[in-house]
C-alpha cells in the first residue's frame, strides 16, 4: 500500500477520532472496547497491504475496528476468567487415598468378624431387617416369635456390634504376635 493510501485511511481516524469512538461505543456497548479496537485498527493500517484503493475510508475503518472488537470478544470467551479457573482448581478429589482405602478395608473386615460373632438368630434377624428390609412382623412369623422379641434381638445385636466396633483395635505387626492372639 502506498503512503498516500495509508494517509487516506489514517487521517479520518486522527481528524474524527471522537466520531469513530462514539459510533463504535454505540455498536459495541463499551467505550473502552471501542478505544482499544480503534487504536488497533490505526496500528494495523500502518502495516496493511492493500492492492486496491479504498473508496470510503471512514466505512472501511469502522468495519475494521468492529471486526477487531469481534475477534477480541471471541478470543476472550474462549478463555476462562480467574473465578472460573479457581472454581475448577477447588474441585475436591473424589479418589480415595490409600490410607482411607486401607481403613475402609479394615473396617469391613472388622464388621464382618463382629457379625460372625453374633448368635445365629440375632445375625439372621439383623441382616434381614437392615439389609433386606424385611418387616418385624414377617421376621416374627418366620422365626415363630413375637414382634417384640424380634425388636429385642435386633437391638441386642446392634449393641454388641457397637461395643465391638468402639473397642480399640490392635493390629499385630509381626507373625509371632498373630499366633499369640
TrEMBL record:
Keyword Transcription regulation found: yes
Top-rank taxon: Bacteria
Residue ranges occupied by any RNA polymerase sigma factor 70 region 4 type domain in the UniProt entry: 109-161
Keywords: Sigma factor, Transcription, Transcription regulation
Transmembrane segments: none
The keyword Transcription appears for this protein: yes
Gene Ontology MF: a single term: sigma factor activity
GO biological process, one term: DNA-templated transcription initiation
Pfam annotation, one family: Sigma70_r4_2
UniProt record similarity statement: Belongs to the sigma-70 factor family. ECF subfamily.
Name of the protein in its database record: RNA polymerase sigma-70 factor, ECF subfamily
Species of provenance: Sphingopyxis indica
Taxonomy of the source species: Bacteria, Pseudomonadati, Pseudomonadota, Alphaproteobacteria, Sphingomonadales
Amino acid at each position: 500500500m502506498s503512503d498516500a493510501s495509508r494517509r487516506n485511511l489514517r487521517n479520518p481516524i486522527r481528524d474524527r477520532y471522537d466520531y469513530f469512538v462514539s459510533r463504535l461505543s454505540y455498536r459495541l456497548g463499551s467505550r473502552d472496547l471501542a478505544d482499544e479496537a480503534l487504536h488497533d485498527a490505526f496500528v494495523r493500517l500502518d502495516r496493511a497491504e492493500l492492492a486496491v484503493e479504498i473508496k470510503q475510508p471512514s466505512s472501511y475503518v469502522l468495519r475494521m475496528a468492529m471486526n477487531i472488537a469481534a475477534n477480541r470478544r471471541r478470543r476472550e470467551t474462549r478463555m476462562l476468567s480467574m473465578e472460573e479457573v479457581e472454581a475448577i482448581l477447588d474441585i475436591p478429589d473424589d479418589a480415595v487415598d490409600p490410607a482411607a482405602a486401607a481403613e475402609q478395608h479394615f473396617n469391613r473386615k472388622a464388621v464382618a468378624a463382629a457379625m460372625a460373632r453374633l448368635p445365629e438368630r440375632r445375625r439372621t434377624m439383623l441382616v434381614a431387617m437392615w439389609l433386606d428390609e424385611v418387616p418385624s412382623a414377617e421376621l416374627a412369623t418366620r422365626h415363630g416369635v413375637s414382634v417384640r422379641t424380634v425388636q429385642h434381638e435386633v437391638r441386642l445385636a446392634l449393641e454388641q456390634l457397637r461395643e465391638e466396633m468402639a473397642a480399640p483395635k490392635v493390629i499385630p505387626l509381626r507373625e509371632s504376635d498373630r499366633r499369640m492372639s
